[in-house]
TrEMBL record:
The lineage of its organism: Bacteria, Pseudomonadati, Planctomycetota, Planctomycetia, Planctomycetales. Its cofactor is Zn(2+). The gene is ybeY. This is Endoribonuclease YbeY. One of its GO terms (cellular component) is cytoplasm. It comes from the Bacteria. Its EC number is 3.1.-.-.
Amino acid sequence: MSENAVMDIEFIDQQQLLTFDFSHLQQLAASVLAAHQITQAEIHVLLVDNPTIHAMNVAHLEHDFPTDVITFPLNDTDQQPPDYPLEAEIVISTEMAAEMAGEAGWSAEEEATLYLVHSLLHLCGFDDLTEDAQREMRQRELEMLHHLGMKPSETDTRFQGL
């Protein structure tokens, strides 16, 4: 990162299910952002349970179910100068991560880390609204996970065929 790089990534732990190394997650998040030429960011990551993310999903997206992760960009980076910091809030359900980890073939903490990478990629401009875009985003997630020393299980259907 350059001298002017300022990565303020704060984790707000509102759950008791999983334990994380927050300094490692901060470095991971900064690495994903830097790989996409984002050198300044202020991001709050909330770790919550299913009832909390369900309530947020209803309130903000009108989806009446719990989900894995919700990304809230707080500024429109397309309208800001390139040196303007990215501001966002990310909400991750650790309960959902624990539920999905078995199917994915890795730990709940690794599943939650995937949710963080997924959300950061949304902030970097990726989307998953079409099948092609979803495939591209999954490929980029896989590249980022490998770069970070993580490898999804071969049984994880989300990454099969990539």
